[in-house]
């Protein structure tokens, strides 16, 4: 029987970041994962955006989570000797004069750290737009696919990865020790994404997963150097003339199968915004692990105190996970209190 400090179920963004943080604390870790079962992290565009455009407010805790996100991925870039962070302004195309006026007002007070006060009329690379636009400055994207790939290689090198579908039936709980097949650990952490809805140990949790689909397009005439946003995004990729477009939301179909409906939705939006011809070269789908109150969920099982959950980060995962991974590590290692609005206890009250 091989003894390990932590077994983590799931090698998505949450499981990967948590594993690396625990390894930095000199803990032994084993991630168990079947990458074919959940594709949300691998499909994600990885955009970090400190603004909620619908209400034109700061994204929840963005002022605290962004600095931690940058620190984490800068360290990961050094560890893996690769580029992961792509700072890229977001050009928000205004839907109305009222939105533009609100933007100007908030840019000089409560959102001055994140949005630029100057409003631009269509010109230059954005001459094709029909509306004015403003820039979000502290924005960009993380190469999530690259990060997960490098993390997997790193874990394999450290004999910290097991490629298989996790079996709940093979768990045995003996006091403060949990065994799983040929392994024993002091703590078991579930980072399963939307698959947590099938976890028999956390059936009381109120998840509200949402399927999202994205396109990759080739458009030779589009020369934007920023992420365009007008109720959907067009993200310029490192490969010339290639862009990621998304994303859709579907709360009924929770499969990773691409759909013609989503493709039509996104191409309709593209056609309304772009006067250029383009070619769709790829389509991907994944299910986001959101909770009913749209807050992450973490903490230990009400009965099995050495069984934990770290999940529910949704569309803002690249911003949230690095911050809350450190918060969670402090909870499990130093017995510090979790923030009340992310504690799993809220679903057991």
Description of the structure:
Helices cover 26% and strands 26% of the residues. With 349 residues, the protein is an alpha+beta fold. Strands 1, 2, 10, 11, 12, 13, 19 and 20 form an eight-stranded mixed β-sheet that branches. Strands 8-7-15-16-17-14-18 form a seven-stranded mixed β-sheet. The longest helix has 19 residues, at 62-80. It has helices at 13-24, 40-43, 62-80, 97-107, 144-157, 260-273, 317-334; strands at 2-9, 29-33, 47-48, 51-52, 57-58, 85-87, 90-93, 133-136, 140-142, 161-163, 171-174, 177-180, 183-190, 210-218, 227-229, 233-236, 242-246, 279-288, 297-300, 307-311. The two termini are 37 Å apart. It is globular and about 65 Å long.
Quick structural overview:
The chain is of the alpha+beta class. It has helices at 13-24, 40-43, 62-80, 97-107, 144-157, 260-273, 317-334, and strands at 2-9, 29-33, 47-48, 51-52, 57-58, 85-87, 90-93, 133-136, 140-142, 161-163, 171-174, 177-180, 183-190, 210-218, 227-229, 233-236, 242-246, 279-288, 297-300, 307-311.
